[in-house]
Design goal:
With 1021 residues, the chain is α/β, with parallel strands linked by helices. Helix 8 packs parallel to helix 18 and helix 12 packs antiparallel against helix 15. The two termini are 52 Å apart. Bound molecules: iron/sulfur cluster. Iron/sulfur cluster binds next to helix 4. The site of iron/sulfur cluster has 15 residues, from helix 4.
Length: 1021
Amino acid sequence: MQVSRRQFLKVTAGGLAASSMGVLGFLPSEALAEVRQFRLARAKEIRNTCPYCSVGCGLLMYSLGDGAKNAKAEIIHIEGDPDHPVSRGSLCPKGAGLLDFIHSPNRLKHPEVREAGSNSWKRISWHEAIERIARHIKDDRDANFVTKTADGVTVNRWLSTAMLTASASSNETGILTQKVMRSLGIVGTDAQARVCHGPTVSALASTFGRGAMTNSWVDISNADFILIMGGNPAEAHPVGFKWAVEAKKRGARIVVVDPRYNRSAAVADEYLPIRAGSDIVFLGGVINWLVANDKIQWEYVRAYTNAAFIVKEGFGFEDGLFSGYDAAKGQYDRSSWNYEFEADGTTAKTDPTLQHPRCVWNLMRAHYARYTPELVEDLTGTPKDGFLRVCQHLGSTAVRDRVGTILYALGWTQHTVGAQNIRTMAMIQLLLGNIGMPGGGVNALRGHSNIQGLSDLGLLSTSLPGYLTLPSEKAHPTFADYIAKTAPKAQAPGQLNFWANTPKFFVSLLKWFWGDKATAENNWGYDWLPKWDKMYDVLQVMDLMHNGKVNGFIVQGFNPLTSFPDARKTAADFAKLKYMVVIDPIATETASFWQNHGEVNEVDTASIKTEVFRLPSSCFAEEDGAIVNSSRWLQWHWKGANPPGEAKTDQEILAELFMAVRALYAKEGGTAPEPILNLSWPYKNPLEPTPEELAKELNGRALADIPDPKDPTKFLARKGEQIPNFALLRDDGTTMSACWIFAGCWTQAGNQMARRDNTDAGLGNTPGWAWAWPANRRIIYNRASCDPSGKPWDPKRTLISWNGTAWAGADVPDFKADSPPADGMNPFIMNPEGVGRLFCTDKLVDGPFPEHYEPMESPLGTNPLHPKVVSSPAVRIFKADRERLGTHDQFPYVGTTYRLTEHFQFWTKSVRLNAIAQPEQFVEIGETLAAEKGIQAGDWVQVSSKRGHIKAKAVVTKRIKALKVAGRTVHQIGIPLHWGWETVAKKGFLSNTLPPAVGDCNTQTPEYKAFLVNVEKIGVA
Ligand code: SF4
């Protein structure tokens, strides 16, 4: 008999009991046989997806106790799903701790209220919670709803209550939230995307036509060169990073450019330091080098970019300002940032010879001529020789058979120039011919597990599902205005110009909102949607709150007190609210902002009159539904157990709340009841719409028979059937779809998101696994992987090709499948000109070419490129926040925030395993600065900014070097997030106390990555 050490210990540890067991017949032989039984043998296996990051790793969950009547299922084990084509059984430290998340002591189990002025939570019933919240909603809405503007435009908006929506909840929760929220008239709304990847959408949509990661996790392994800059995937997306390692095994080179030598750098071929906030200098320098050294994929650039387009007379750039700047408004008039058009007014003029002085190519070349390698070294602190090596690596891909990619995340987005950081790299990839190519692309590594999905569903102030815009009072006062202004005309002959279909998507969306009540006569209920006058992003909403103009805040699956910049001001502003509703599976600092936690949260509880409702919701393991990973895959997951205590799903909570509000309007009347009373609510149980019902609505269905235009005896779909794809959507009210880009996810053939065929169709492409938007395409713009004649640029990287009658291959063509190369249709089908934009016309507020501007808090206090325009002239900053900006003489060091492998945002501090792995708050300080300040490893330090301070342990490190920048020494301090007081780890300060409340010019994503701080030693180790 073999007895392993573990078995031996198990047997002998029983001691006396073991001998008694022998008497009872439990002799070691039987006992060992028992040990050998597979512990999961009686368990039920359920498939799910990791709810943390956007890699979307597959999970196998095992539950016990679900077979017998009255027995509750309990999840007892979670491991990686070996079938999953991305994760292949792996989980990182976050995913590996998920069992402890489900069973965290910080899970909420009962509805509670914190009454005005109280210092404790009080348990209440669901009935009381829903009734009281519904009353708050109705009273506030009736008192403050705006039906019309002074000049008579119907706007139907409600600004005095704002809402934040979850970023890891399912699409089905997200779309129900969208429906309820807009029916109430809420426009002050945001999802986590605002504080993380907002600039990605702006930058990539303005360049390529869509705002999403272009390729996929597995496809990273097809690259020959990988630049990691503005991200740290080895730590933030550990399992996705395995595909960069696979590329390296194939011979790819990896270079990391980052303020901190991180774990991605540890496995890279080369690491280069950089001053936080100077990325455009580096990338602009790359553009200059590529042009100067003729490392351009010319066939691609001439055919597939707007290099040859002629820019309007009047466009210019001088002394740091583009043409059209209005200093009084702090904004640009962007009318000169456009093409010159032919007499028809829509066809852009071009000069294929690239000789015209105002063609995009020549303007771009002149703009970046200033970004010399010497300037790059001087402003970024990156050594010139290393920079030149990166240029050479990138330049080596300007050929048919070599491809490079970029992996980035919040290191690029969280700046006042966030969108422009990304735009610069998007331009580089166009110059190199790397977009649409397997192994190429711009890989925006999304953060939260479903932040891609919730962006797709338009859970942002001015958005609607499928990247449609919410109507604006100025541009779209009427339905006719909306249709006229959102469906562009093609700007080049023969282009697909896909957004011309907007009316079909929009009318189908309105039919989803209002059902039979949406008719041609009432413009499909157009006026029941709220209209915006400006973007009510989180910074705008917080400024309104600061000025006492917000009474209610509904917070769903979000922890804004830990996530918004300038936490002390945020907490003070929360105290001005009349009511707050927090829907979350775990205890958050936001819900308990009124609790005094000493120096960590110094508040006067009794003086805070906000009523706070805390509603417990289910977590990922306790619901069915789909989430969208960074590669745009909609992956269905299944419920493994009921939520704890009295917790409910978000769908139940939203439905109960909505039905209670609707009942009040039906009984009492009130202001603008129509959008609420007319909302389509066709769910079998109105108090609990099911994920299946909602997923089918996301896809869309025929509301009448849809005839086949090619054969009137046939139908493309019969009334009531799920539509197969978005091509069937109509603008005549005969179809409905809650999100046109998701059309195809649940067809007559069933739930496509639940598919699990992991067959590799070529180049790691697994089209049978889950379902990707749009139309199951895995690499977008893939027509650009072929030359204009339809042949793959690189036969080794054949994804699709023209076979003589159609485009076909391992991926679904992102193109009109039957358009032959001779027709001259170009690959960027969402852009009306059909090509990728080196010059992005008037799409961004801060310039058609990226330009380097210093962070709002600059360690230099000047901008050597144009000293009169130091920071971005198009930045929006509120008065109260401007007064809280510091200067480099008071706060001499650059603070930059980041995340740790072992933690995810502010959730895993409630998870025992992760709390053990990283229990205590720290900051990273370079050795030179530490020596100057007399700080030893393990000492307590205080890091302060103009807005407050945190205290943490010092990690003194070689990983952050002092940099020489513009003739001075710049020190940077690394500040991990993740701590707070609702925790099973050690209590810590909110790191977001330090950064300023100022955002990216285009999207208002806050500048967390470069701000000014000071550091002092306050105690010894
Ligand atoms: S956190 Fe991301 S990488 Fe880690 S297991 Fe979850 S999905 Fe995978």
